[in-house]
Structures
1.
Amino acid sequence: MKRIGILVVAYNAASTLASVLDRIPDDFVPKIAKVIVNDDFSGDATYLVGLGYQQLNERLPLEINRHPSNLGYGGNQKAGYRWAIEQELDIVVLLHGDGQYAPEMLPEIVAPLEREECDAVFGSRMMEKGAARRGGMPLYKYVGNKILTRFENAAAGLELSEWHSGYRAYSVAALKDIPFENNSDGFPFDTEIILQLHEAGKRILEVPIPTYYGDEICYVDGMRYAKDVASDVLRYRAHKIGFGTGEMAFETHDEYELKNSDETSHRRIVQWFAHKPVSRVLDLGCADGRLAELLRASGHEVTGVDLHKSDGVGERVDRFFEADLDHGIPAEVGGGYDVILAADVLEHVRDPRRLLAQAEEHLGERGTIIASIPNIGHWYPRSRVALGRFDYDRRGILDVGHVRFFTRRSFERIAKSAGLAVRRRESIGMPLEVFERGGQDGHGGGMRLGQVERAAVDVWPTMFAFQFLYELESVGSVG
């Protein structure tokens, strides 16, 4: 049998706390291992009411706790979830001491977790049409709840009927797997923990609950709350895309990803190879070999080099060499290559000029180097610097792994100093497919945005090109 704990968060709940505890169903009480009332430094007699209830009523395995200072709504939950973990509970239910959520629903809230059907259960006032308004939810709160929930679902890639109910039950094992301690101490905590559960791949299930609005005091500033939770989901979406430091997308894998849409450097490289005869290719910084796999499917022979041997790379290239390109191209790869590919790799080495010069030495007669580089002159890093907000991102131009930055002019100067001339150059826009990461399908508006962005790249490439793609040849081969 699951060990079930009830966390009662209470603030100035002296008039309602005893009633809330009384309403816990008698037939559910035997399932409860622990009940803790966390009084968050109330200004009334909440703590004394709790102590009195504990002394006069032995029905519940009750613990009364008063914080020495106000931790806030989120801070109070953090303390409660730490307690649940320390008590080695299996399930913890969040119950409010003001009576806004019906204790009579505890069996329904807990049941899916007992059956191990999910990792969290949320009580929803919006699942039954019209129930929220019949229960007294003010119209402005109802409309605001619906608008915010729809926005949050679209941004985060969920389909919850309500994000803003405070009646919840969690698997304690799931809580251990998410960094809830990093969340806000205020009301946005409830939104942030949804994002964390989603990011960690946890299963969330909703059950309908009744709506009750009485004479309890609401401590939520509605406009500030809406701004804060909207900011949270947008920050999460940005982190999924690759912008920002990524702490809200803590489970997102950082492996190098193949860019599949037509207007990306990877797809353009494949198109360039379509017009080449079967070639011997040296893929510098081949990552997991997915780009090499596409080239091999067209008959090309590919040798890969990278710092680490990623899973599956051995099956996607003809030969693989593990080497640090900061120390140069390993001699054992040999020479005489028709094409040397440096896709998204030169920004990761400290001396790209030296690597290009070494690559030129490994080319066969009339061989070329195909290189893609990020454009630090793009409007995004420019605006970050102008605003004094320069920092590294999880992905993209400001990828935390980048040690060199290029403009179009600076890269061409480096190539020239390495004995290379530009045979062909293309300007590549942002890989708009990344805007679909973490959101609901179809909400990226990628086609329309792509048309506008493509036009901007054509008109002003040094400002709007996300990358530049080059085919380089030895200066002695020109002409």
Note: Residues 222-241 form the longest helix (20 residues).
2.
Amino acid sequence: MTVLKVSGVHTSTIGSFPLEDSPANRRRCIDDLLEIDIDFPTYPQLVDMCKQFLDDLAMQDQKIVTRNGRYRLIGKEIKTDVSPLGLDPFLWTLQYLEDKGVKDKVKLKAAITGPFTLASRIEIKKGSFPYNTAVSNMDLVKQLTAALVKSCQKVSKETSIISIDEPILGVIVGARTTFRCREEDIIDTYNALKKACEGKFVGTHICGRIPPNLADTLLKTELDFLSHEFHDTPVNINAYTSNKLEESGKVLSVGCVSSKNPRLEGTEEITKVMEKFRQYGDDLIFTPDCGFKNLTVDGSKEKGYEISIRKLKNMVEALKRFKARE
């Protein structure tokens, strides 16, 4: 597959939806994304983003035990020589697209849960979070990074865009201090996974508020795009300047609809969010703020899913207005 370099303005998704994981729901999600005409749809993530990868790791590493949905390392090291982790929904989606005869037409985006976030879900001792988890030990984070290399190599052969999803970084990297990892640790981790993706268009998604020192660190990586929430966290627009993004050669991926609030944003409202980012270059990607996994309406996942699809439809329509005003 030819290496993709994103140019122009596009739409994409983060991945998750508020439906139970089943073949029928996977088909429903990908069919809806294709009908909406999302430019870079992420394969449907209908299970917890950490469980998706850690269950595979636990099956191959007897030192990681699971109990009541929790993971615990009973040894001192995490196994790195493992088969690709967490790729079942991605590979399922590829096969489904091939069966539909559209695999070569769809620019699929692959989501890989990052090693810092996975480490934050593995308990290593008693104590309070995150001090009791593997994210407090950089050696273990590095081992998880090594374990994810084969996953990155595998998806890079079949996809257009790869996102290393690291929501925990917005928590452990504060405004002034970084929790038990140095700036170079973050940079080296991202660069190692970027290299494993073998030249593909690779970025990261981090939701929540982006502290200035985290933004500066991300700009120093070899990543191609940076994805954050801007609808519910508008202060993130101050995280980067257009000049710094241009100097770093990175594309900004802008969350422009809420993934938490079931209120349906109108197309004009979404367009106004998009308009704030014209200064950030000619290449932009617009997405929801985050995945829709926890979006419900009156406790109903079905209603939450219906709203998420309507939000995406309005986002696509808003982009048409955005382009028309150029």
Note: Residues 9-324 form a domain with the TIM Barrel fold (CATH 3.20.20.210).
3.
Amino acid sequence: MTANERCVVVTGASTGIGEACVGALIRAGFFVFGSVRRDEDARRLAERHGAEFAPLLFDVTDAVAIDSARRTVEARLVGATLAGLVNNAGVALPGPLLYQPIEEFRRQLEVNLFGQLAVIQGFAPLLGAGPARRGAPGRIVNMSSVAGRMAMPFLGAYAASKHALEGFSDSLRRELMLFGVDVIVIEPGVVATPIWDKAERAGLERYEATPFATSAERLRTQALEQGRKGLAPERVAAAVVRALTERRPPTRIPVAPSPLLDWLLPRLLPDRLIDRLIAKRLGLTPQREP
């Protein structure tokens, strides 16, 4: 490590927002460690991003692998502070809450919430939340979503994890003031990433025998249409760079295609009105007796 090198760890770096963050951070002058779960992704990213990138092979739910990755990063730092930790890894598995398997619900919390805390606990000492290190304290950037503020039908588990991440980040930010380690939340709206290809294969057909079959399919169709026209992941990556480099970044940075429609109005309108608008759009209005 050179005297002026700034290092950042990005989780979930294999595709989409995570990989866009890797590229943007390298261009901003950082050396980037990117976590992936498969060897082939590690090789592909290393070839694409060159000498300013190093892959880390771990799943955010694997404590042993996280510790091994931490030791790899620590060796590179040689006593210096890690400049940033970007918690981007996450999953979204849709389904109506009355019928979604509890294990599937739990999996989303394990990855999107408990996994984030496990990674933070692992890397926090390198950021400056612990024994003295050389350099200014680092920052933590947690990738939330507009779903952390407004929950759509059939995405209850995902919304629960992101709502929890929002509150968790506020508590963490206030705790880490003791060490000077800041915590910033990024709140993307619809982003054009490979997650929409996964959504197309989401397995909602298992709910065909439930009262929610038609509405769930409508949501998937609409989400696919909007998702493939969504923001470029580089827009979110630019917000991450801002969070790590701006002298006094905001605690939350929303990144929405239409800030008025996607962010401001849903926060100002009454819940019951939003309920009715969503129900009409997805066919969730009660069926009246003839």
Note: The CA atoms of residues 8 and 84 lie 5 Å apart.
